[in-house]
């Protein structure tokens, strides 16, 4: 009898874990309480107004980064009205040649809609296969949860996308910043990526500089098989003045 109960518990637990996501709301809405003086998670519903459900921060583009990307996230941290609703957005604008470096969202699938321009867009699956294509205005691409993906404006005019997520706080991990983020031992990076100490030093100096150089990752397009033994589908070539596709 105890074995049966244990097996049933394991099955139920496994099902709960595999289906885990943002929890379903248990009320109409729960506007995040930004008053740090209280421990109440939600603003009193009787005090809610229409303004709690409106965000105007993406009417204009943000400031462009060194890689030519201006990104404005619209998640629960900037828009308390999203709290418990399990959705969020991002507006991303690209200068000509601008890049959204390889990155992933640990807690959400992303659906990206091209508002204007031509965006080379893609992701890499766990078998190191690249799915990439140039998207034009009006086209949509989905990036499965947790998979590395990337975007680049391949047109000669500005481009923009609107990304939606199935999480109020999808999270963001940028590969170049995470790898060369001034914390991992240089010896490990040298062995992992086959880089020289000189290359590592350049990237670490860039990381600490006030105006960092572009440390970018190029994805091979010619094959779904990956040539690098420890970093499939990506190779480093430091420094890189622009983001060039490797043919």
Automatic annotation (TrEMBL):
InterPro entries: Cupin_1, Germin, Germin_Mn-BS, RmlC-like_jellyroll, RmlC_Cupin_sf. Gene3D superfamilies: Jelly Rolls. It comes from the Eukaryota. It is found in: Secreted, Extracellular space, Apoplast. Pfam families: Cupin_1. Residues 56-201 form the Cupin type-1 domain. The keyword Membrane does not apply. Residues 1-20 form the signal peptide. Keywords: Apoplast, Disulfide bond, Glycoprotein, Manganese, Metal-binding, Secreted, Signal. CDD domains: cupin_OxOx. The keyword tRNA-binding does not apply. Belongs to the germin family. This is Germin-like protein. It comes from Salix suchowensis. The lineage of its organism: Eukaryota, Viridiplantae, Streptophyta, Embryophyta, Tracheophyta.
